[in-house]
Amino acid sequence: MAHLVLTGQIKNKKRVVEYANALAKELGLGRMWSKIIFIKFETVLDDEVQGQCWGSRADGYAEVKIARKSGGEPLDYDEMMRTLAHEMVHAKQYLRGEINAAGGWKGKKPRNYKYENQPWEKEAYSKEVGLYEKCWL
């Protein structure tokens, strides 16, 4: 299993770690014992987004950040957990080399996709609710 490092303030931290491990297993990261996924809960992220992820297959890591507030308002706990599911899909994409920092997708050259047409976002949005329901609820 990829190693998880969880930092920042979040209630029920033990349950969140168990959830993140379940997400990693569900996403097929169970045999990636040499990889590390850093998960950090922060008050606010740049651009008021709810979550961010980046990483490198070559360097063996992914970094996920989850906001506790967006648009000046606290995020609902369940919304943070759905966001974590979404961002863990991106962590899988980075660790498996499906996406790279330049915007390349599955070995293809980067394109100027509109946000809603980015294949990595389509995959993350299509999986987040199912992952949340299976691993959290």
Question: What does this 3D model show about the protein?
Answer:
This protein has 3 helices and 6 strands. It has 137 residues and is an alpha/beta fold. It is 36% helix and 22% strand. The strands form 2 sheets. Strands 1-2-4-3 form a 4-stranded mixed sheet, with helices on one face. Strands 5-6 form a two-stranded antiparallel ribbon. A hairpin with a 2-residue loop joins β5 and β6. The protein has one domain: Collagenase (Catalytic Domain) (3-Layer(aba) Sandwich), CATH 3.40.390.
Task: Give the helix/strand layout.
Layout: E1 3-8, H1 13-26, E2 36-42, E3 51-56, E4 61-67, E5 69-70, E6 73-74, H2 77-95, H3 119-135
Parallel strand pairs: 1-2, 2-4
Antiparallel strand pairs: 3-4, 5-6
Helix pairs in contact: 1-2, 2-3
The helical percent reads: 25-40%
Order of helices and strands: EHEEEEEHH
Number of domains: 1
What would you call the quaternary organization?
A: single chain
Supply the CATH class: Alpha Beta
